């Protein structure tokens, strides 16, 4: 298990230069990015960075949300409701009611699939399976993975284990699987 604390995140400008992201963790492979976890701060309406050939799951973790305008129509990114879309899709965002922070999972769909969900309250077990791994983002203190309590906005990456979410404490779990 690897633990990523907020003070260790790599803060960098967005690819399009319009804001900042806090990169939590990433893995590259010979052809480029395999997967990346980050938290973005969105303070103004505007275009999203493009990630050609990659897929993306965005989950609002703070604020009222975003309307994501795409050529195919509008996607509503509401609090704790993951929204998946292609990194090739041109996206222009509009804040619903003030700034937001969102958790982003960007990955290469030729190699992986990724699913984001809220783990249930109490203990949840995540089994070992070939090529699968997990990441748990604690949205408040009290969330633990295999008995290790995560700091608020801390992330645990693991291949198998159990997640404990006390009543009223939110977390997000990413399930990665081979494509």
From TrEMBL:
Matching entries from CDD domains are given as: cupin_HutD_N
Q: Which SUPFAM superfamilies match?
A: RmlC-like cupins (SSF51182)
Highest taxon of the lineage: Bacteria
Name of the protein in its database record? HutD family protein
